[in-house]
Design brief:
Number of domains: 3
Bound molecules: zinc ion
Structural class: alpha/beta
Strand order of the largest sheet: 4-1-3-2-5
CATH architecture of the largest domain: 3-Layer(aba) Sandwich
Shape: globular
Number of strands: 15
Largest sheet: 5 strands, mixed
CATH superfamily of the largest domain: Rhodanese-like domain
Number of helices: 11
CATH topology of the largest domain: Oxidized Rhodanese, domain 1
Helix content: 25-40%
Distance between the termini: 49 Å
Order of helices and strands: EHEEHEEEHEHEHEHEHEEEEEHHHH
Radius of gyration: 22 Å
Oligomer: single chain
Length: 324
């Protein structure tokens, strides 16, 4: 049963001259063919996720492959029912993943061993090995490799500091790192190599996406789903023995539904059922629930009286002087 749309995930570290001009040209081209998604371009390379009808994604892949620099660009392809993005963005950045090191790492010079999915699966089962999830906390919560360590970071650029703070635990171990499509690990594993953290560094080539599609591994040893940065929000990975590990922020029951906290100043991503989202006024905590700009309350059009009643039902009340 083949679907009509595709989502492409890709990156390549390769020097790009005049990345600003290339960014403008690519934006114009992508829009002209009806592609949507998000592409980051820098002098160090390209990192993108885009979607569209199959004839459009095919056109885009041909376009990229026609350039010498990108003739070998590896597109990880996922079929989809629709566009996975609302708009087309092509942006120029200092880095194609934001690690913001004072002394940057060039993954073309320094990086961890690229492990194919089968090799990665084998390496994960070695007792002398630690597996570090290089993604953010909300990505880990929905799904991760069995026994992987969660650094509990909110943004990728926080990871180097976490590694420095915890390096004693990894010094005499083999270290494995993984991320969605592989781009974050190119630089991060290079950082581990340079800093001498871990006695051997391996990175999952092509990321979780490739591990899921690989016919040998079929996503084996992955627990839960994978968070993706597009309209789909999550995708299945394990095709051998899929499980649910996400839990509802409010009551701890199994849940894979993401919401943003209704407080625009918090905006935290949490897992919650529709019922609990309503019960807890769309806010992750009391402070967010009673925030005067709580979007969830505004969208419902609840009166102050109604908000008070709803808060009372969960044993909370509006602070003095606050109107909903
Ligand atoms: Zn909140």
């Amino acid at each position: 049963m083949s679907k009509d749309y595709e989502v492409l995930l890709y990156y390549k570290y390769v020097p790009i001259e005049d990345p600003e001009q290339f960014t403008k040209d690519e934006l114009m081209y992508c829009k002209s063919i009806g592609l949507r998604g998000r592409i980051l371009i820098s002098s160090e390379g390209i990192n993108g996720t885009v979607s569209g009808p199959k004839e459009v994604t095919k056109k885009y892949m041909d376009h990229m492959h026609s350039m010498d620099k990108f003739s070998d660009l590896w597109f990880k392809i996922d079929e989809a029912d629709d566009y996975a993005h609302k708009k087309m963005f092509v942006r120029h950045r200092d880095e194609i993943v934001s690690l913001k090191l004072e002394d940057d790492v060039d993954p073309l010079e320094t990086t961890g061993h690229h492990l194919e999915p089968e090799q990665f699966r084998e390496a994960m089962q070695d007792d002398d090995t630690v597996i570090i999830d290089t993604r953010n906390d909300y990505e880990y919560e929905l799904g991760h490799f069995k026994n992987a360590i969660n650094p509990d970071i909110h943004a990728f650029r926080e990871l180097p500091q976490w590694l420095q703070d915890n390096k004693e635990k990894f010094m005499d171990k083999k270290v494995l790192v993984y991320c969605t499509g592989g781009v974050r690990c190119e630089k991060l594993s290079g950082y581990l190599v340079r800093e001498g953290i871990g006695k051997e560094i391996g990175q999952l080539y092509g990321g979780i996406e490739n591990y899921s599609q690989n016919e040998e591994t079929k996503g084996d040893l992955w627990e839960g789903k994978m968070y993706v940065f597009d309209e789909r929000i999550s995708v299945p990975i394990n095709r051998v023995n899929p499980t649910v590990i996400g839990v509802d922020h409010f009551d701890g029951t199994p849940c894979e539904r993401y919401i943003n906290c209704g407080n625009p100043e918090c905006n935290r991503q949490i897992l919650a059922s529709e019922e609990n989202q309503e019960k807890y006024l769309g806010g992750c905590c009391h402070e967010c629930r009673v925030h005067p700009r709580n979007r969830y309350v505004k969208a419902r059009g609840w009166s102050t009286e109604e908000v008070k009643e709803r808060l009372a039902a969960i044993g909370e009340e509006l602070p003095d002087g606050v109107e909903a």
